[in-house]
Amino acid sequence: FYAGVVDGVSSYINEMQPGLVPLILHGNHNETEEVLATRRFLELRAEWLMLMGSALSSEAIERLGQETPTAVIGRWLESDSVDVVVNDDALGATLATTHLLEMGHQRIAHITGGTGNGARTREASFRQVMEGAGFEPLVLEGTYLQSGGAAAIRRLLDEPGALPTAIFAANDLSAIAVIDALRRTGRRVPEDVSVIGYDDIPMAGLEPIDLTTVNQPANQMGRTAARLLCKRRESGDRRGQQVVIAPELVVRSTTRPI
Questions:
Q1: 42 dihedral zone (left: phi>0; alpha: psi -120 to 50; beta)
Q2: Which of 40, 114, 182, 203 allows an S-S link to 143, with CB 3.0 to 4.6 Å?
Q3: Which parts of 23-100 are beta strand (E)?
Q4: How far apart are CA 9 and CA 198, in angstroms?
């Protein structure tokens, strides 16, 4: 996902602002490392900052936005001084859950993205759709990493009773780990358990995986954030804007009617 965002940023800058040079540092989803990275950028006199899935507090991001033009991608923030570009996580989770319900699935589990940006919104939307359809939502705590998805599915496999007929993982990396664990224990996907992810990373479309997922348009999000910051650079306007981009359901071979 982040590679797609960076590609969108770089392509927009190369096309529209070829005099700018993008600099990239990885904060490792760690607040301390992100603080050091932003300080380094400011010491280099960066004209603006772009944060992807930031672990910084809202207050810290707001302070950065007041100091230099700043955009946040993939995390909602109420701010007048920071540009915010997000995917509609609630809609995306609704698309995924509704897809499974329309295929006749009733016992559906959701593996969360833990504390990751947008994860709780996706979880809340899953719960709302399931309860609205009259079914009990099964929620397993996970993360946006493959290890988080693997740990969650192992806990589910260790529990007595029948497995859910479908699993909605909070992102594609988690979903791929779920598919791997199911197949290693003799379960067929989608014949025994349907699996759906979120993001539509390039790996999801490869033939051995062919994952049904929700497309979070990373490239478009990167281009949008770059456009907003370049516009502020040209106009001198310090006010931030909020842009919500709608995701789309991508149906492949890991889901099927029950």
A1: alpha
A2: 114
A3: 49-52, 70-73, 82-87
A4: 21
For the chain, what's the residue count?
258
Assess contact for 52 and 74: CB atoms under 8 A. yes
Vertex 189 angle, CA 188 and 195, to 5°: 145
Non-local CB neighbours of 254 within 8 Å, separated by 6+ positions:
175, 179, 189, 190, 194, 195, 196, 209, 210, 211, 212
Residue 201: C-alpha distances to residues 56, 113, 141, 145 (Å): 25, 16, 22, 13
Scored b (16 or more CB within 10 A) or e, 75-110 reads bbbebebbbbbbbbbbbbbbbbbebbbebebebbbb
Q: Is 101 helix (H, G, I), strand (E, B) or coil?
A: helix
Rounded distance, CA 254 to CA 179, Å?
A: 9
Label the pairing between strands 82-87 and 49-52. unpaired
Side-chain half-sphere of 253: how many Cα atoms within 13 Å?
A: 8
Single pTM value for the model: 0.93
Tell the burial category of 174 from Cβ atoms under 10 Å away from its Cβ (0-12, 13-18, 19+). buried
pLDDT tens track, the chain, 258 positions: 889 999 999 999 999 988 888 899 888 888 999 999 999 999 999 989 999 989 899 999 999 999 999 999 999 998 989 999 999 999 999 999 999 999 999 999 999 999 999 999 999 999 999 999 999 999 999 999 999 999 999 999 999 999 999 999 999 999 999 999 999 999 999 999 999 999 999 999 999 999 999 999 999 999 999 999 999 888 887 789 999 999 999 999 999 999
